[in-house]
Amino acid sequence: MRKIIPIIAGYQIDLSSHIDLNKIKINRIWTLYDEEIMWNSCKINPQTGEPIEALEDLVLKNHEGVFLEDYIHDWNIKNGILYYYSRVVGKGESVKILIEYEEI
Q1: Would you say residue 104 lies in a domain?
Q2: Is residue 103 a part of any domain in this protein?
Q3: Could you tell me if 31 and 89 are in contact, meaning their C-beta atoms sit under 8 angstroms apart?
Q4: What residue ranges in the chain does DSSP mark as E strands?
Q5: Are 10 and 97 in contact (CB under 8 A)?
Q6: Strand partners of residue 71
Q7: CA angle, 80 as apex, 79 and 84 as ends, to 5°?
């Protein structure tokens, strides 16, 4: 599953109003720096030839509207709080993150 969440970049981010971190396992976090580029980078599923319309079906590519953040070095979850240390955006800047997760 995927979800786009607007945040203010910083070290401790409470995501409880968007997602219950106690009920999911985060697999990846992407910094979304240009949503239009992200959607336009792959309009057709290369395996099926079908148009991509859902976030779940989008083939994400690093540096094509999104930047893959490194687990531990750039983000971590502790006690229901996201620790986010992106190299792409400065502390206090508004940004969207794209979370790839699974329910547990």
Answers
A1: no
A2: no
A3: yes
A4: 2-8, 24-32, 66-69, 75-78, 81-84, 94-103
A5: no
A6: 75
A7: 100
Q: How many domains does the chain have?
A: 1
Close Cβ partners of 18 (under 8 Å, ≥ 6 residues apart): 3, 5
Judged against a pLDDT cut of 90, whether residue 10 lies above it is answered with: no
CB 6 within 8 A of CB 20: no
Amino acid type, 14 = D
Give me the mean pLDDT over the 37-45 stretch: 88
Read off the pTM. 0.90
Tokens of 51: 């148009």
pLDDT surpassing 90 at residue 20: no
Domain of 79?
2-94
Other CB atoms within a 10 A radius of the CB of residue 34 amount to 13
Q: What is the distance between the alpha carbons of residues 15 and 35, in angstroms, rounded to a whole number?
A: 20
Asked, for residue 47, whether it belongs to a domain, the answer is yes
| Residue 99 maps to a domain | no
The pLDDT of residue 42: 83
Mean per-residue pLDDT, 8-34: 90
